[in-house]
Amino acid sequence: MERVIDKDFCLSSYLAFRYIFKDNYDFYENMHHITYKGIPNDKRLLVKTAHDIDLGIQKQFDELYEKYDKVGILLSGGMDSAILATYLKPGSNAYTFRTKLSDSFNNDIVRSEAYCKELGLRHIYVDIDFDDYKKYTPILMKTKCAPVHSIEPQLYKAALIAKEYGDEIIIEGDESDYIFGGMDQLLSKDWQYEDFIKRYIYLNPENILNHPVDITDFFKKYKLEDGKINFWGIMTHECTYESLSSYHNAFNTADMLYLDPYSIFEMSEKIDLSRIRNGEPKYLIRELYSKKYSKFEVPEKLPMPRPVDIIFKDWTGPKRPEFRQDIDMSKLTGNQKWQLWCAELFLDLFDKQ
Fold it and tell me: What angle do CA 264, 84, 50 make, to 5 degrees?
């Protein structure tokens, strides 16, 4: 496939989807990004029940402990990492993010402390502040050859700390959401094609860039004849690629081995959207959590927190000529502001034209 150098397209793709969705497109001649796409579907383990998932995870941990003595985990307050923590040996290191900037991590801290006490794990905090973003983001962008996701500096710092504590591999559970129906807002209805596009795009390049490029090719292969869209296909492919690439880049840049035990699974039966739409997102994972933590209430699904809202609260926006100067920053979320900050920093560091 012919390689294309197109800064305008890459900027538009990053703002819209948080990654460059065309593998052969790059910002610059000397920088080639690679989108990590995980385990191919034909090599995944088919599961039908919570018991199947339990057996599949246990087998992976048995194999891990044949290779490694020190296995750590990224532990939040949610179901996915809490379940994985139950397969660890007592005394293992569990890493939880926190910040002095806001209370965004409070729920994770309370629940992760309870999990560590229940399981006999060593609880280690990873403190995050703006200095970490400024220090680690350029390193991560250099290896990714593109602007990065706001989770990457946190993951990178956690990996560095885990290495200091002697862990040989880190467990994380990000892919559960995409396999077992955790993105309940995007799965909430059978979307019309145009409505889904408006809902899915993070930042519309036309509202941000002076030279936006059409990025709707991203959606076209998922368009259905009835005017709707195959949203499940996007969830299990494009959406997954963006997340997988973020975790892959962060851990690989830190030279830390990692494993997501959920990543080998695929549901053997079509996901039950009616259960998700009636208040049971990730119903198989909820069942497994209840089995593992019979005394705990099943937590509501929350994304991994990042202190970007407070960090970028008063940021006035990008100044480079690639960006429009009439952007209404008051209407943007902290994560959207992060994307603009990160995109401008990437251009400042690597734009040689």
Answer: 65
Q: What pTM was estimated for this model as a whole? A: 0.94
**List of residues 6+ apart from 215 with CB closer than 8 A:** 9, 12, 13, 16, 17, 21, 201, 205
Q: DSSP alpha helices (H): ranges in 188-333?
A: 193-200, 205-208, 217-220, 231-234, 240-253, 273-277, 283-292, 308-311
d(CA 115, CA 93): 12
d(C-alpha 244, C-alpha 258), whole Å: 12
Give phi and psi for 109, each to the nearest 5: -65, -50
Q: In sequence order, which residues have a C-beta less than 8 Å from that of residue 33 and are 6 or more positions away?
A: 20, 26, 27, 144, 145, 146
**Per-residue tokens: 141:** 């962008």
Q: What are phi and psi of 57, to 5 degrees?
A: -70, -45
pLDDT, tens digit only, all 353 positions of the chain: 789 999 999 999 999 999 999 999 999 998 999 999 888 888 899 999 999 999 999 999 999 999 999 999 999 988 999 999 999 999 999 999 988 877 767 778 889 999 999 999 999 999 999 999 999 999 999 999 999 999 999 999 999 999 999 999 999 999 999 999 988 888 889 999 999 999 999 999 999 999 999 999 999 999 999 999 999 899 888 889 999 999 999 999 999 999 999 999 999 999 999 999 999 999 999 999 999 999 898 887 666 667 888 889 999 999 999 999 999 999 999 999 999 999 999 999 999 75
Asked whether 86 and 292 are in contact (CB, 8 A), the reply is yes
DSSP of 4-43: EE-HHHHHHHHHHHSS--STTEESBTTB-------S-GGG
Residue 43 and residue 245 in contact, taking contact as beta carbons nearer than 8 Å: no
Contact indicator for 283, 164 with CB cutoff of 8 Å: no
- Residue 170 backbone phi and psi in degrees, to 5: -115, 135
Look at residues 186, 182, 282 and name the one whose alpha carbon lies nearest to residue 234: 186
